Each structure stands twice: as C-alpha cells, then as structure tokens.
Amino acid sequence: QRTRHYWAHFLRFLLLTVAFVMLAEVLIFVPSIARFRADYLLLKLEKAQIASLALLATDGMIMPELEAELLKNAEVFNVVLRRDDVRQLVLSSPMPQPVERTYDLRMSGPLQLISDAMAELVDPQNRVIRVIGHPVQDAGQLIEITMDSMPLRSAMLDYGLRILLLSALISAVTAVLLFLAVRRLMVLPIRRVVRHM
Questions:
Q1: I want to staple 102 with a disulfide (CB 3.0 to 4.6 A). Which of 121, 130, 145, 175 is the partner?
Q2: What pTM was computed for the model?
Q3: CB atoms within 10 A of CB 14
Q4: Angle of helix 2-56 versus helix 150-182 axis, rounded to 10
Q5: What is the three-class DSSP state of 161?
Q6: Are 47 and 136 in contact (CB under 8 A)?
Q7: What is residue 103's three-state secondary structure?
C-alpha cells in the first residue's frame, strides 16, 4: 500500500513537472518557429539574389536552360530586383498558379512574423507566395521572389518536431531529477522526524 502510494505521488509530480516544462517550451517554441521561418525566407532571397546577379553579370545574355537551372537551384519561380528606382524582372519561369499571399519581410514585426508562421503551419495546401525583402550588401532597393509554400511548411514541421522531441526529453529528465532532489532534501528528513516522534 505504501509503495503504491509512493509511486502515485511520483507519477503525479512527474506529470505536473512535465506539464510546466512543456508550457515553458511552448512559449519558447512559437517565437522560435517564427524566427526559423523568417531565416528560411531570407536565405531564399539571398540565393535568388545570387542567381539574379549571375544573369546581370552577362547583361542578360544567358541560355534559357541555364536560367531554368538558376531558378531551380534557388527554388523560386521569379526574381524581381529594384535598382535605381527601376523594377526589373531578372529571372522568370511559368508559375503553376497565381500568387495567393505576399509577405514583406521589410515591414514584419515580431507579432506579424508569429502570426504568419502559425498560419503557415496550419495550412496544408501548397500555394504560390510572394516574398519581398532587402537585398544583401545594399545591392539594390528591393528583391522579390515567388515560390511554393510547401517546402517552407515541411521545413518548419521538421524543425518543430525536433524541438518538441527535445522538449519532451528535457521535461522527463527534469522531472526525474526534481523528484529525486525533493525526495532526498525534503521527504526523507521529514520521514526521519516523524519516526523519531
């Protein structure tokens, strides 16, 4: 009976600790996944800019096959650069469907990034999205790309799953260590006092 009571307390303590740790992890997870998404899109913009600069370096004289390969490597459909107040479609390819959403990373604050990331996670459909940002190294005023949303969502899900698995492991280890610490520092001394009384 005493052993059963002991393990019931242990399980209750374990679940409570796991719940609190997981709550803390959720509060960390949401901004983390938003930051991951922003970094992912910024990397896409950078790769698209590199691809477009390869074309600009040849004054637009490039084989269609090479243009298609540059777009494929950057994983985008179109690249638009604005330089000296002139908007220029640098690289282009046919799009499977019209653009459904536009994300301007120049204007997005933390709350907007979190909102967009959560919307992306819960939307299982593949959509063509437009992403706007600043070119790196001040190579223009604006860069704009169009791309599929599904690779972004898949990357976010993989990242989120890794965080959740790590969080569950940390929660379990933390709960066990806390229980052992509480048992050694509080429960056992109280039991000794009770026995002496």
A1: 130
A2: 0.76
A3: 18
A4: 150
A5: helix
A6: no
A7: strand
